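Pipeline run #58 for the internal structure catalog. This entry was flagged by the ingest filter as a single-chain record with no existing model, so it goes straight to prediction. Upstream metadata was stripped on purpose; only the residue string is passed forward. Reviewer on rotation: M.T. Logging verbosity set to normal.
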Amino acid sequence: MPFTPIHAEKLSNAVVDQIEKLILRGILRPSERLPSERDLSERLGVSRPSLREALSELEERGLIQRKAGAGIFVSEITAAAFSLPLIDLFSRHDEAVFDYLAFRRDMEGLAAERAARLGSETDLAVIEEIMTRMEKAHERRSGAEEARLDADFHLAIVEASHNIVMLHMMRATYQLLREGVFYNRQELFRQRVTRSDLLEQHRAIQRAILARDPDGARKAVEDHLDYVEGAMLDLRRADHNEAIARQRLEHTRGS
């Protein structure tokens, strides 16, 4: 875990500051379990009373949660970015799907551009590792795993852009995507041709970022999401046509 010993006049304040920054920078993620109090106090180099005072303050601020018998967790702070009525609206209207894709095209294009310029070698190694896992999932024809890694890949690029506001905003929208609010990503992976196209598009994004090519990285993201938009339109059209065909079949059988 990414903790360092504390040296300050009031230790509890320094503990609060360190954990806050780890959450702010996206290193500690929503729902992530923190070490036990004993382990955490040893890692930070502070007494248990100082640690408990800090944890109480963080809990009051809504940044952590204590769960009886389970431990201490980072709060689901990104989940509160959208209200439940708004999430319900998103899930029931196609207009939100395509506006979401347009939003991703703009934001992720910028993130990829920044990642190519500002990402560290470690950032790029993370992106490369996820890309390797996607390729293995593709070889196993594991559509569900490939879809999950798809979101992880894009989030890793946002993390590599080193913009805290963008990170938390995009993390919140990816959570809705994982929950199928906008569309079911697995639908895009149900056909082998589509999956192969998507994999190659991710490779193109990765290549541009590794080459430190900001313009190429942005274009690769835009091309990828243009493809996703087209695929979603095709799926909508196919579902619509199938519904009509079933009506015809039912009518024919009833004649």
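catalog note: The longest strand covers residues 64-67.
catalog note: The chain has a mean pLDDT of 88.
status: ready for reviewer M.T.
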